[in-house]
Design goal:
Layout lengths: L1 H36 L6 H10 L3 E5 L2 H4 L14 E5 L3 H26 L10 H26 L1
Antiparallel strand pairs: 1-2
């Protein structure tokens, strides 16, 4: 019972983090749609301002020492200029990584089933069985790799 409670609490925490990340995205899209529905248009600076307002961007002060390798064209920046970066969405990234990993695991399971098929009338050579098992192993390993990368 204690393990179930802990699992439920962890799931609830993940859902709350996803909801918080999605709130900013949803508000940003709503703002842009509202402008469009009213016949308006927005330029890049206005989009950037809306994204900042809704928590999708963070503003920092440019320093060549710190940010030169992080911007597309460092020649356009001087020390002290505002510079904007996308806010990370770790809960969303972890959720999407898990979805991708589960898809790969389904593929691996299907390939293992083909490799282990013994139904009458189904003829699969041993070399084909081995190839399916190897592919399934590779895909399962890749699913684990995706999870590890998401956890970092």
């Amino acid at each position: 019972l204690r393990a179930e409670t802990t699992a439920h609490e962890n799931l609830q925490m993940q859902v709350e983090k996803l909801a918080a990340e999605n709130a900013g995205l949803s508000a940003f899209v709503d703002a842009l749609l509202s402008i469009a529905w009213q016949g308006g248009s927005v330029d890049g600076a206005e989009i950037q301002e809306l994204a900042l307002k809704h928590g999708l961007l963070r503003q920092e002060v440019y320093s060549a020492d710190e940010y030169e390798t992080l911007v597309d064209d460092p020649g356009n920046f001087e020390d002290g200029d505002p510079v904007y970066f996308r806010v990370e969405t770790p809960a969303t990234d972890a959720f999407l990584a898990e979805v991708r990993a589960q898809g790969l695991e389904r593929l691996a399971k299907a390939w293992y089933a083909i490799a282990n098929e013994t139904s009458p009338g189904i003829s699969i050579s041993e070399s084909s069985r081995l190839k399916y098992r190897q592919r399934a192993d590779d895909v399962a390993d890749f699913a684990n790799e995706i999870r590890k990368e998401a956890a970092q």
